[in-house]
Amino acid sequence: MQNASFQGKKAVTKIAAILAAGLLLFTAACSSDGGQIKGAPGGGGAAQYTEMRPGDPDPTDADLAVLDELPGSVKEYYNGYWNSTRIGPNPYAEYEAPEGPWKVCYADSFQGNTWRIEGMEVAKLLVADLAAQGLAEPDMTVTNANNDATLMANQVSSLVQQGCHLILAMQPPSIGVCQAFDKALAEGVLTVVMQSGTECTSVIHSDFGAYAAAKVTADWLVEQVKASGSTGNVVMCNGIPGVATAEARQLAARVAFEEAGIKVEEITGEWDSAVIKSQMVNYLSTHPGEIAGVWDGGVCNVPVNEALAQGGRDSVPVTGFEGPCNAMAQWAATGNESISLSAGAGQGVVEAVKVGMRMLSGQKPIVNTLLYPPQVIDKSNFEEFHDPAMTLNSVCSTQPLGGESVPDSYYDDLFEGGEDAPTLSPVLTTLPVE
Amino acid sequence: MSLEAPTTTELSVDTKKISRSKIAPNLVFLAPVVMMVVIAVQIPSVMTVTGITSLLILAAILGIASVGQTWAIVTGGIDLSIPAVIGLACVAVAKLTANGVGFGAILLLLLVLSIVIGLVHGILSSVLPIHPLIITLGTGSIITGSVLWAAGGRTGGVIPQFITDAVSPVASTGPIPVPAVILLWVVVAFLAILLQNRTAFGLQMYALGANPTAASYALVKPWLVRSVVYTLSAAFAATTGVLLAGFSGTASADIGVPYMFQTLTAVVVGGTSLLGGRGGYGRTVVGVLLTTQFTMLLIGFGVSSNLQQVFLGLVILVLIAIYGRDRRIANRL
After folding, report:
1. Residues of A in contact with B257 (CB under 8 A)
2. Number of residue pairs across A and B with CB atoms under 8 Å?
3. Contact between A310 and B158 using a beta-carbon 8 Å cutoff
């Protein structure tokens, strides 16, 4: 009996120790304070940054104040920004750009799909171009964290130790790598986070405005539904629940449909074609009513159209989102008008490198987050993005020839001082067709 | 100790107890019928040819993926490499078809890979004092990494049209107006139940899962039984990968990720003991049908995906509690 009691106490002690250790780890993971770290040249720290609140339709006074202060030329692309990113002062306000040739490094959180590989390959081409101009070392160090935040943090720290001047970080987790970025900032290493917002306050973010972009496709669908006179529902095909950019897109669409008085049903496709199709098949089986259209929160266009056809339903307007090549092939094959956005990883890297080059040339961004509009693909410019070699099995993303989402002059109002940044040669000279 | 013969009343009570103990665990086989009635009443629109065919297609894909998981669990193990093998087959069929390799050659390659994977799992889990959970998790990681390395991260390709047709609700199989995947599942289920219930190998699986030490005294070779089980598991996972390529219209190395949870759910909901030695594929068929029907019901009611997970978790807990009331199963849970 005494032995049992002793073992019980021992077990309780063990559990308490594990809980305490867990609490410590959690506290450590959440304790990133960005520009407040000792020696970091950042501004006033995290307190001056707006909060990231995915799925929140109502801006705070602080959110609105930031919007008010942004240049008029970019303001509309920052609509709803608090859903997917934080905005605050430039953490590199006291940053002194190093002399070239610069060592450019690429920290990827994952490299398991074509979108990611396209991004990395464009980065290599850009570095080769800069090297040819004598501005960068020819070899770009690449790391792959395989969706492991701890590993990515270690890899970023390693890149800092290897002497990287510019780290291009592709879609890091929103927290978990911030302390490594803090250290990079403290060491005077410039980090540009691409294609996602994070909680980190020691990096520059380069991304398209998810909320503003989603509003474009949702508004198009509203017009289509109104023009058709349909009284059916719009089905929203959502991404991964809880992911900031997915929530931002969905909120923009929901608001647009609510304002138009259109009833909405939602399925969760998790950005996975097989899941999207099974969800849509189930939806169609259980909802015999009229569907007015389907809004795509990412990857949904082709599986949704297939499910509609195989379920014996009439074709309805289905939006696209990131301009997947298979959706372009389907659009061409069926002639059913759609809308999409050109948001390939390659052009995302181009925008991030443009930002990095400006900062390495001594220019200072006025905020930490630089949002731009993705190019809209509609019937007027469809042929610019479509290649007949694209098929329903293609996995590439459409990207504009040249690779720019916006002209370099777009950033003029977002930067101050410094010298002219080097000009980048066009690297995306052919349309992707894989 | 009483040497008196039981009275007629005592015999009658015992017979009732035995009948009850035999009937109760088998009530689960009625559950899909009851669930279908619920669906028919609540969401009558499902009761169309397309609606039922759609449901059976989703069930068939999960059902084929769950054969190996069931047997791995019956033998006292678990197969966490199923998602990786699904991804491997999905990418392989797309890439190799794009490179002009015939479908027969692709199937042969997948069969050889399944045998290699099965042998590695079977031998390592028998020779090393390591649970198959760790081994299959490790090999799963190796498989996915190797696929991405071999494909250079570019997983796209060409998916043969006949695979897409095989999983389409409006397709037929020759003169039979049923998609091929449903017929395939029927055949697989029949053979699987026959193998586990009517062959010496089936008995060896249960013996190994119930008591590995006693099984070895009965001349059961654990490495051989496990190797065959994990080879079949890999082969069925590969079949699922090929079918998913057709279903989704695209190839991805992580397309099998949801099947880790889904195959385990189907096995548990069916009532196969996670500790091995009890249950079987017949029960998993029930688990597959129930989870597929339940998901359809929740979508029909407009329940969000987050809540779908909550309800599915609750169902698992309730069923575990019900199974726990059956002493024979409770002893193994």
Report:
1. 272
2. 123
3. no
Q: Are A342 and A377 in contact (CB under 8 A)?
A: yes
Residue A266 has φ and ψ, to the nearest 5°, of -130, 140
Segment A262-272, tens digit of pLDDT: 999 999 998 89
pLDDT band at A157 (very low <50, low <70, confident <90, very high): very high
Contact A359, A100 (CB under 8 A): no
Tens-place pLDDT, residues A333-368:
999 999 999 988 999 999 999 999 999 999 999 999
Name which of B68, B77, B81, B78 is nearest B196 in CA terms. B68
Q: How close B79 gets to chain A, by Cα (Å)?
A: 21
Q: Which helix (H) or strand (E) holds B308?
A: helix B305-324
This complex has an ipTM of: 0.84
Which chain A residues have a beta carbon less than 8 Å from that of B304? 241, 266, 268
Report CA Rg, chain B. 21
Nearest to A235 by CA among A285, A292, A306, A320: A292
How far does A38 lie from chain B, in Å, by closest CA? 39
- C-alpha dist (Å) from residue B278 to A50, A360, B56, B214, B221: 56, 66, 26, 16, 19
Q: Which of A112, A273, A391 sits opposite B248 (nearest CB)?
A: A273
Q: What is the band of B317 on the pLDDT scale with cuts at 50, 70, 90?
A: confident
Q: Which residues in B lie closer than 8 A to residue A279 (C-beta atoms)?
A: 299, 305
Residue A375 φ then ψ, to 5°: -75, 140
